[in-house]
Amino acid sequence: MRLTEFTELITAEFGERSADSILVDHVLIEFGGRTGAQAIEDGIDPRDVWVAICRDFDVPRERW
C-alpha cells in the first residue's frame, strides 16, 4: 500500500484531526509499542499499520 492510499483511508475513516492524532499518539502493541507514524518511518508497510489500527479501533473488516 502506498503512503498516499494509507493517508486517504485513515482520514476517511477517522476524520483529519483524529487521524493525525491516532497516527502519532496511539501505540501499536504489535509493532513493539511504536506509533503508526514510527512504524511507517521504520519501514513497516502502511497496509500492516492500517490493519493494526483497524483492529485496535474496531473498524469493520470490510473497510480494511
TrEMBL record:
InterPro entries: DUF3046
Protein name: DUF3046 domain-containing protein
Organism expressing this protein natively: Gordonia prachuapensis
